[in-house]
Batch of 2 targets.
Target 1
Amino acid sequence: MARLVGDAAMYSFIVDVVVHPDHQGAGLGRRMVDALVNWSNTHGIRTTLLIASSDVVPFYEPLGFTSDPSSFMKYAPDAPTASDSTK
Ligand SMILES: CC(C)(COP(=O)(O)OP(=O)(O)OC[C@H]1O[C@@H](n2cnc3c(N)ncnc32)[C@H](O)[C@@H]1OP(=O)(O)O)[C@@H](O)C(=O)NCCC(=O)NCCS
């Protein structure tokens, strides 16, 4: 499965990209992401965003995605930090 969320105007966010382990490596992930990006493009949305863990960055890069740390912000005041693990 994979979902596209957004305001249907300026930005789309690709979320929940997952392929069942029995079917990984058969091109399904690429086809889903391509389809969502194409939907954005055909609806005039010029920026499609997603959050990728480091192990799947190599999956997204050939699909045209680039890393842009400058645009990433989060709100998680209660989340553990790196310094917590050293206490
Ligand atoms: C990441 C995931 C969605 C890829 O789906 P998939 O259907 O297995 O991928 P595809 O078969 O479409 O692969 C397309 C290409 O990406 C490569 N690829 C797939 N997963 C990769 C990974 N984790 N790292 C690097 N390359 C990867 C494939 O080898 C293939 O390369 P090729 O064109 O040279 O043959 C799938 O492995 C998955 O569900 N993982 C667990 C959930 C997850 O991490 N989701 C991402 C959340 S951001």
Target 2
Amino acid sequence: MAEAAGGTAGPDHGGPASSRRGAPARRATPTGFFRGYIFDLDGTVYLGDALLPAAGETLATLRARGLRTIFVSNNPTHPREHYAAKLTRLGVPTPVEDVITSTQVMVDFLDRRMPGARLFVLGEEPLCTALRAAGYTLTEQPSEVDAVIASFDRTFVYRKLQIAFDAIRAGARFFATNPDPYCPVPGGGEPDCAAVIAAVEACTGARVEAVVGKPSRHMIEATLGLLGLPARECLMTGDRLETDVMMGLEAGLSTALPLTGATTASDLADSAIQPTYVLRDLGDLLPPSPVAGPVAGD
Ligand SMILES: [Mg+2]
């Protein structure tokens, strides 16, 4: 079994904040190992199509110690096989079962609350395929729709909005996969699920009842369930304060923010959301030891 979770001797372990709003960020790093490690992907493990510094070595070291590594993404436009294959191609061999996207969380959410529901999906084909594979019927007949599912949808058109409008006015429930306003892409961004939610809310007056991706409890509960570990024995690592770090903090996990993605040291200093640890890169997750020291840096 792994060592006791993360650095019980360290003053920074377990606290929700390592600095206060407006104060310079204090760069604390773990002094021990956790039993479970949950990683965001883009901006945390890789950026675009390349691993970030120290990511491959750190993941290999954690796994060699028998510690669990799970990857979470809010992006419902790719099946989780896509992410497992990408990690594997980049040198981090990863089984499909170790990836959770907002699509899997939506299936789990519906299975618990509305098994067998008939759905109208404002989303792309991978989400539709996953919902059908889980046994759900998709329909474009508003009177048949039990729940409208809003998502990141680059195939969004007025006809879909009309169906969602009619279905919700006829009593359908309204859920969404993720709360992201846009998805960063090289050179800019693409309008994401929040824009689709806003369109439906604006015309119906309804408010989305649940958004299951990060930072929701649905996402972290599904992830901890997969790990089979209590929150206090896991570390959530991700580059976004409002999603990755917020989700971990609210669920009682220690959190780590790598300064390799969306959040700069200046952003961090100005935020009320403060992670337990701040990392130059994932190499800082490894406590100093003769066999597993952090990579050279600053
Ligand atoms: Mg990210």
